[in-house]
Amino acid sequence: MALDLLNVSIGGKALFTRAIVRRPGQNLADGLTTVDLGQPDVELARKQHTDYCEALERCGLQLFPLEVDEAFPDGAFVEDTAIVTREFALITNPGAASRRGETLAISEVLQTFYPELRMLSESATLDGGDVCEAGRHFFIGVSERTNELGASELTQLVQSFGYTSTVVDIRGVPGILHLKSGIAALSGGRLLVIDSLAQREEFRGWELLRVPTGEEYAANCIEVNESVLVPAGFPETEKIIRRLNFQTIALEMSEFQKMDGGLSCLSIRF
Ligand code: CIR
């Protein structure tokens, strides 16, 4: 009998079974970035991406790799193009004009799993990096990429499926491109947060784990089934996560960090 891969859970926690990924193209360095860390080395980025994919496989995920498309230098950051839950898949309108066309390839894969793909209205923008799913709650960032209309349309969609949600305006928070550059949800109602978001009203009532100063990049980590993938080189944050009895997998991310990318943005997990 075929296993219903969209509905696997252990102890009530939904497990991911699949991930969509896309290797970085030769022109990765032509992508958008706000940081000044130098040009990425494409061969090293590809090695780091291979290690990332292997880690997802070790966590039990089946990979669905998209073809590299040199028309989209930011194409490896697939997370921004769709919001996928057990109940629905929404194709986003990425906030950067150069990234708009990335959604086509994602739609083609997702329509094989979801009979109907949800869409935003034309003037709504939304990047997946601004969407943080924490159990049955969504934090939705308004940022330089996600506009208020995008956040509001996603709010209506998630609420129609019984999720709760909070909009978090991160415009003006220094050093973060997306909401998930500064927070990560861990099971058990915990949020890993950078200092500049820790005092925000929107997170009251959640157990906050503060990312130590100097390790802010490590706020972008991802819980995948029994493990938490963390960027290598941020030992204090890794210790905080291990103390909660998670097993961690540390991955080198230097070349993606140069392009404003983190662990969450390299896959769509569902
Ligand atoms: C961009 O600026 O759009 C890409 N260079 C990086 C996107 C990172 N996405 C993410 O964190 N979700």
Detail the topology: elements first, then pairings.
Elements: E1 9-10, E2 13-14, E3 18-22, H1 42-58, E4 62-66, E5 82-84, E6 89-91, H2 103-110, E7 118-119, E8 131-134, E9 137-142, H3 148-160, E10 164-169, E11 183-186, E12 190-193, H4 195-198, E13 207-210, E14 222-224, E15 227-231, H5 235-243, E16 247-251, H6 254-257, E17 268-269
Parallel strand pairs: 3-4, 6-7, 9-10, 12-13, 15-16
Antiparallel strand pairs: 1-2, 3-17, 5-6, 8-9, 11-12, 14-15
Citrulline is lined by residues 31-33, 74, 77, 79-80, 96, 99, 128-129, 178, 259-262, 264-265.
Describe, in plain words, how this protein is organized in 3D.
The protein has 270 residues and is α/β, with parallel strands linked by helices. It has one domain: L-arginine/glycine Amidinotransferase, Chain A (5-stranded Propeller), CATH 3.75.10.10. 20% of the residues lie in helices and 24% in strands. The protein has helices at residues 42-58, 103-110, 148-160, 195-198, 235-243, 254-257; strands at 9-10, 13-14, 18-22, 62-66, 82-84, 89-91, 118-119, 131-134, 137-142, 164-169, 183-186, 190-193, 207-210, 222-224, 227-231, 247-251, 268-269. A three-stranded mixed sheet has the order 4-3-17, with helices on both faces. It has a three-stranded mixed sheet with strand order 5-6-7, covered by helices on one side. The longest helix is centred in the N-terminal third of the chain and has 17 residues, at 42-58. The radius of gyration is 17 Å and the shape is globular. The two termini are 21 Å apart. It binds citrulline. Residues 31-33, 74, 77, 79-80, 96, 99, 128-129, 178, 259-262, 264-265 line the site of citrulline.
